[in-house]
Amino acid sequence: MLIANRGEIALRINRACQELGVRTVAVFSEADRGSLHVRQADEAFCVGPGPVARSYLNIPNVISTALITGCDAVHPGYGFLAENARFAEICADHGLTFIGPKPSVIAAMGDKATAKRVMHDAGVATTPGTDILSSADEARKAAKKIGYPVLLKATAGGGGKGMRTVENEQDLERAFSSATAEAEASFKDGRLYMEKLIIDPRHIEVQVLADSFGNVVHLGERDCSVQKPSHQKLIEEAPAPNLSQKARNALHDMAVRACKHVGYSNAGTLEFLVSGDQVFFMEMNTRIQVEHPVTEMVYSIDLVKEQIRVASGETLGYTQRDLVARGHAIECRINAEDSSNNFAPQAGTLADVVFPGGPGIRVDTHIYAGATIPPYYDSMLAKIVAFGETRDAAIARMERALRETVVDGVNTTIDQCLEILAHPRFREGRYDIGFLPSLLKARV
User: Fold this and answer.
1) Closest-CA residue to 6 (of 67, 43, 52)
2) Which residues contact 347 (CB under 8 A, 6 or more apart)?
């Protein structure tokens, strides 16, 4: 198995492969030469210099490495090439099994505007919006019809990039221009579409698994509403607190129905906006998610192993009735960021590094004392996951774990996570996507 990624997800995949008896090949950039995923793989090869376009996104180099080393399959993890339909096609053309869905499904669901049309055809509720917008003038006409406020979104987007909230017509042209430029720089695809902005909804996603024989199951939902102003997630939990049974049932039903409609296979996540009992499809991620550990903790299932099993042609081997959630799990992302300065990314060399342990604590990380944090990549250093029989127990365990954690050398989000966990709205489980931005504004 060639692992076409870096950092903690590359380590996560490597560990699953080792337990399955699968030999691994890591790829790395010159900036990642000392990374743990390089040390722990059976073989490792440099695919280029630090910038992602010349290394982790260098498809010829990645494919050549897989072929030279005799790999049978490629696992893309998340980010980089994970939702690149052309990369999946190239893998197939060279006899490599791509650990993910078919290229046609990646293409359909990876394009956010197309995905909304497909979901509408499947009977899944979607937010009012447009197809691809050809110009700022077309966007202006659409906004008048939909009604302000609206949200401009990159059709190839993710992680909040290429996304702009527009409150009025005066701001639209500037927002359209900046969102297009950011999307082009991030995804080499500057196309945008528009949605009606639902005021302060919850961001809730459903984990799905499907095999190549038409069997589809869901593994419950995750609440991902604690988001930075950039729309990037900071804390996730499963199951979602204070969710009505009506909304929960609708989320699960829509997710399974959507997967069957598109002939989905492998692991995936459907993201929804929830307002009261109203549920609206937002997008589908045709890959493993950063926050998958919270689902693994409450369902006691290894999602990465399941990805590999399904890609190998096996059936799921279980039905929806066999999957029962137990307890509660919370994940905090420990990022190299300065939360007092608009979460500006940090780079540098780490000094002392200490991670927590004890019952119910899981740490997914690639860092260590002396590691260098390069400026080229996502700022996440680690994911700390706490499990408890109740939500209160999981919160208490997470607070203890965060206080045990030491990462010296760069600013991190540890203190920000502790502040959120202590807030009454989080404690009560009554927060939405506006929660963290409002908390930050109140601090100024």
Assistant:
1) 52
2) 336, 373, 374, 375, 410
Plot region of 317 (φ>0 → left; ψ -120 to 50 → alpha; else → beta): left
> What DSSP string describes 198-255?
PSS-EEEEEEEEE-TTS-EEEEEEEEEEEE-TTS-EEEEEESPTT--HHHHHHHHHHH
DSSP 191: -
Q: How far apart are CA 271 and CA 222, in angstroms?
A: 9
Check pLDDT > 70 for residue 444. Answer: no
Encoding tokens for residue 278?
Answer: 């109203």
| Weakest-pLDDT range from 102-111, 213-222, 402-411, 417-426 | 102-111
For residue 86, how far is the Cα from the chain centroid? 20
Nearest CA among 197, 242, 227, 164 for reference residue 439: 227
Among candidate residues 155, 197, 163, the one with its CA nearest the CA of residue 182: 163
DSSP 32: G
Q: How many Å apart are CA 347 and CA 423, to the nearest integer?
A: 29
155 backbone dihedrals φ, ψ, rounded to 5°? -70, -25
What's the rounded Cα separation, in Å, for the pair 45 and 80?
17
Query: Can you tell me the distance from the alpha carbon of 262 to that of 111, in angstroms, rounded to the nearest whole number?
Result: 14
Catalytic residue, candidates 164, 202, 222, 287:
287
Domains of the chain with bracketed CATH:
2-98 (3.40.50.20), 128-196 (3.30.1490.20), 202-443 (3.30.470.20)
The yes-or-no answer on residue 403 being catalytic is no
**Contact (Cβ atoms closer than 8 angstroms) between residue 26 and residue 45:** yes
Rounded Cα–Cα distance for residues 421 and 243 (Å): 19
Q: What's residue 416's pLDDT?
A: 97
Strand order of the sheet with strand 150-154?
163-166, 150-154, 192-196
Q: Among residues 440, 209, 212, 420, which one has the least CA distance to residue 343?
A: 440
Measure the CA–CA gap between 392 and 428, rounded to whole angstroms.
10
pTM > 0.85: yes or no: yes
Token representation of residue 126: 């979607």
Q: What does the radius of gyration of the chain's CA atoms come to, in whole angstroms? A: 21
65-107 tens-digit pLDDT: 999 999 999 999 999 999 999 999 999 999 999 999 999 999 9
What pLDDT does 313 receive? Answer: 97
